Structures are given as structure tokens and as C-alpha cells.
What we know:
Layout: H1 10-27, H2 34-57, H3 75-94
Helix pairs in contact: 1-2, 2-3
Amino acid sequence: MMMPAFVPFKKPLVYVTGILEPALGIALLFSQTRQISGIALLVMFVVMLPANINAALKHINFEKATYDGNGPEYLWFRVPLQLLFIGWVLYFSIGL
Length: 96
């Protein structure tokens, strides 16, 4: 429901990102994989942001999987949170 209409293979992408995100998070714990997993997470955060914006514009309710959610007000919380995650990963994995 979150992904824009132009994105192909929506369901497999949801499963792949659902597996990759925690796996890359765990990889941040190890110095050998920290930098590459940080870069991969940054790419995921940037690529996922349009899906979050799309979900807000469609008023998607994540708990019920309906179209009666908060709508764009959700972005006031989600976008700064996404930026916090991006900054956090940059600082701790890449050292910027």
C-alpha cells in the first residue's frame, strides 16, 4: 500500500527490505561490516522516504491497512525521524 504505483515487484521488495533492514542493523555492530552496512542503510533510508511520503498522502493507516490514516500530518513526525536515522548512521558507521 505504501509504494508508489510505478514501483514494480512491490511484495518481494517489502520482504527484501524487511530482511535487509534488521540484518544491516546487526551488521553495524561489527567493525568489519560497519561502513558497508552503514552505506547500504543510508541508501535504503533515502529510497524508502518517497514510500513514506506516498503513504502519508494516501492516508494509509498502518495498523488497519486502510486508507483512513492521519495523512500528511504523519510526515511532520516521519521525515525528521528519517533524517535523524540518516544522521545517526552517518555519524556512527562512516564517521561524518
